[in-house]
Amino acid sequence: MDLTRQEKKIARVVLSDPEKVQTMTILELAKKAKVGTATISRFAKHVGCVDFADFKSYLTTSNLIQAKRMSEGSILDEVITYYKQSLEETKSLISLSQLKKITRIIRKANRVYILGVGSSGYNALELNQRLMRMGINSCAVCDSSMMSIIDTIISPKDTILAFSVSGNTLEICDAVQKCREKGVVITSITAFSNSVLAKRSNNILLIKNTEKSPNYNFMNSQFTINYIIDLLTEILLEHPTYLKNMNKTVEEVLRIKEANKKQL
């Protein structure tokens, strides 16, 4: 069953605590779901009930199981559709030539510094471990205090990749400004081309902004960054040396797992 965005709000409230909903008035449910009472009435009819009172009677255990499956299916479809759309929009914002340019910068750099704070810090760590396994000299910097002094140790022959969805993370913006003044090439991965970080970067890889989705209380904003990381990884692994190094680490991980199994 296809539910409207407002009806999905009601469904989520109902599924979170169906027993509580059975004791609610139509006004109380409308307030809880942040919709109008008319929307509640339409929702009740949409699921096959005569009115709201009939809908509350419908919330028996057996019927609730069926309703839950119906609603969960629509939520699963909605989320994956949103993910697909976000990835497609990110794809439209970048180009293969851009990505290859960034990988050339990575390959030529003495060291790659990868900056990220909070959730973007996890992205920085992920890219760092991939580069390290390829044999590329890299370092993830996710600590604010370290970012404040990075300009004292960085060289113009190094490069920076900075992750920030908003593009306004203070610590990162300050760090890239100081490092760019030293001649370091800055590449930012952000959702906003007019952000402070973007303006202070030599190169920008734009992603779809998922932080302000109107349909969800929470939406992962990092998966579009992971898409960029995967693309950079694939291009870098076209280089035989990087692929060989990566395969060595895979073999070693498998060897360690096998050895651990024998000890159990």
Overview in brief:
The chain is α/β, with parallel strands linked by helices and 264 residues long. 61% of the residues lie in helices and 9% in strands. β1, α8 (119-133) and β2 form a beta-alpha-beta unit.
From the structure above, extract its key features.
Arc Repressor Mutant, subunit A, five-stranded parallel beta sheet, alpha/beta, single chain, Rossmann fold, 264 residues, 13 helices, 5 strands
Number of E-type strands: 5
Tell me roughly what share of residues is in helical segments.
55-70%
C-alpha geometry = elongated
Sequence of secondary-structure elements: HHHHHHHEHEHEHEHEHH
Q: Give the mean pLDDT.
A: 87
> CATH homologous superfamily of the largest domain - what is it?
Glucose-6-phosphate isomerase like protein, domain 1
What would you note in describing this structure?
- InterPro entries: Homeodomain-like_sf, HTH_RpiR, RpiR-like, RpiR-like_SIS, SIS_dom, SIS_dom_sf, WH-like_DNA-bd_sf.
- GO terms for molecular function: carbohydrate derivative binding; DNA binding; DNA-binding transcription factor activity.
- Residues 102-239 form the SIS domain.
- It holds the Pfam family HTH_6.
- The chain is 61% helix and 9% strand.
- The chain has a 5-stranded parallel β-sheet with strand order 2-1-3-4-5, sandwiched between helices.
- By secondary structure, it is α/β, with parallel strands linked by helices.
- It folds into 2 domains: 5-89, Arc Repressor Mutant, subunit A, CATH 1.10.10.10; 94-258, 3-Layer(aba) Sandwich (Rossmann fold).
